[in-house]
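Review box. Two proteins, two foldings.
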Amino acid sequence: MLRCRGRLAGTIVALIAPLLSGAQYIRADLDDRILATHNLERASVGVPPLRWNASLAGSAEAWANRLASTGRFEHAPEDPRTPEGENLWAGTRGRFAPEAMTAAWIAEKRHFRPGLFPDNSQTGRSEDVGHYTQVVWRNTREVGCALASTRDEDILVCRYAEAGNYRGERPF
């Protein structure tokens, strides 16, 4: 019994140790982990997986760094020549894994109802599903994300091509 408990304790420590190592764990394989989380949800609704786009990640990095340096939390101005979708997330520095960051957007699924955007929120507010619908938008094929940090906060910016959340269209 004691031996089994020892193995169990060792297994638990091995599983949670990366979570306790702070920002290094969060940044390790960030792109692969965020992409996997997106694609798992996309597969659940039957839309094709996203591909990682380094150019979108570079654009996301520039905006994440700007948000971190200014202390503001707002969407980037949209360039009508090359529209990109954008999801933002912020939380206590070093406390959230990339999967948890993107899961916050996916959790909006609880308010989602099938229909045309923006009339697909059970609450009547498109803001309550807009991050989720961008994650699963059927015409979106690429994503790039970046993480920036302040002394107290991590800021994740994801950019999407093709942009989603177009009025009068179905997300999937």
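Next protein.
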Amino acid sequence: MKNYNRLPNCGWLMAFGWLMLSISSPLAHSKEQESAGNVVLLHGLARTAGSMDSMGKHLNKAGYKVCNIDYPSRKHRIENLTSEFVVPEIQQCFGDVLTPLHFVTHSLGGIIVRQLAVEHQQIKIGRVVMLSPPNQGSEVVDKLGTWGLFEWINGPAGKQLGTTEDAIPNQLGPATFELGIITGNRSINLILSTLIPGPDDGKVSIKNARLDGMQDFLVVEQTHPFIMANDTVQSQTLHFLQNGTFQH
């Protein structure tokens, strides 16, 4: 004899099961689970990954998977920093990814990305936002680079950032990737600013932050050391990563 009293319970269980499947289905949460992309953060000279933490949190909140790399910027030349520290850290963070990696850099970090593009083409570069990059070098290095105190503070990489034709920034060529540059026009180091012709951020002139091949360029009222922590700069960085342009 059939027990018809159990059928409603069975139907309820089946309905509940389908409901749970629809809720837990990857399609139901695809937008939340899908990463907006992979982003590598590279700090500047004589700084640490901690200086890029707030930028990393901003991008992570927007759905990006962030790799904030700490590298010994004061201890090695740019070529060695790139090949011996940055490349292995990228591989540890993301493995052998097939999709291009985006980059957000401060100061020296931008030159390291350019070095990557030239010497490590196995790493595919997507969109890049450089903050206060010495893309054509800095006159500060030209005038103070031979001082012992300068080398003690900035190391061998710092001495490579001059404006001469044989300086690393002027040997790496134009951008071969989608590039947006944000630089500042305020300084908290008026002594260094007297060494730099034209408007500057205390370390790099606006003119020397530019690079042939860039897609967009933005000047903000910020200083070299703190530009990466500014809310407007972080919003503009995200906008470029998403759209390939700044919001003017």
